[in-house]
Amino acid sequence: xxxxxxxxxxxxxxxxxxxxxxxxxxxxxxxxxxxxxxxxxxxxxxxxxxxxxxxxxxxxxxxxxxxxxxxxxxxxxxxxxxxxxxxxxxxxxxxxxxxxxxxxxxxxxxxxxxxxxxxxxxxxxxxxxxxxxxxxxxxxxxxxxxxxxxxxxxxxxxxxxxxxxxxxxxxxxxxxxxxxxxxxxxxxxxxxxxxxxxxxxxxxxxxxxxxxxxxxxxxxxxxxxxxxxxxxxxxxxxxxxxxxxxxxxxxxxxxxxxxxxxxxxxxxxxxxxxxxxxxxxxxxxxxxxxxxxxxxxxxxxxxxxxxxxxxxxxxxxxxxxxxxxxxxxxxxxxxxxxxxxxxxxxxxxxxxxxxxxxxxxxxxxxxxxxxxxxxxxxxxxxxxxxxxxxxxxxxxxxxxxxxxxxxxxxxxxxxxxxxx
Length: 420
Prior knowledge:
alpha/beta, five-stranded mixed beta sheet, 13% strand, globular
């Protein structure tokens, strides 16, 4: 999943991925035996995966070697390894925001053949939007390792005291926050700091706008994008001290550690709710769908995991993925502390819902349009420009119309560099 250090993180990957695209080659199948090398990124998902290794080794006789690399270096390290075609990794975890660079580099092996033959993984247990989450150009390059929509979090005790219900629209969300603030609490919190792009693009989509059109022309100067930016600034007036510079992790910590009425953030942060060192409001945290604007959208994020094209033991790699992420271990995987994977059999399980109420938010209605981190290679440069423009508005140095118009012009040459 994206973390607070995502901004500017893969600016160097575009050139590497283009070079890889010219020289990539696929792996070959082998017997499901021997050993595999698994590349993971420190996270609850990584910890959970590793907890299944002893059982897998005992059952299959396949030895599993694990290496972990911090998020900031992980994707660059993977791409450089794939460029060398050394077959260093048989299984690799990656953030969905890197799916496009990996796709353009032809770094990951398509998994559709495995999926079509696997009743244990059972791809039909996922909604169509979930099935498409790891696809590029119609091929599945990564399995879903976590399902993390942007959702609404709220303090059940504060809302009950004030007679409030979770908002269904953005106007309701703001009005709730005003009432909570008037009662002496923090009204709401989102990340106005270095990760502000996450919330800004969410609101642009929700307000009916887009970041660019099908021809890759920027459209952030639309009336919808301007209205979304204005609303983002409006939310600052009902936010607690410190919100203006908070990153995503700090937003979560403040919401769970202070008296703040509501938060908009990814569901993947639910692990922090279970951490008593972070959550000082145990038993008082509720979740609900994100409020709707003129468009019904779900901003979806999360991890993927797949098999590199140069893997030396792809058959054993698939056997490992099937064992850890298949239906048989689905409940155990969730209960091991991982961010939830949105299988229908998980999100509708009554016992699990009683234990993890937020799972209901992972059952995304078919009526809701899925939006995810833009799958363009030039996104890092785009995001930096967007953050700068939005920050100018939030700091009062520019109004939304001027800032979005200037940003639109700045994005034209950036999007023009996107590989065709």
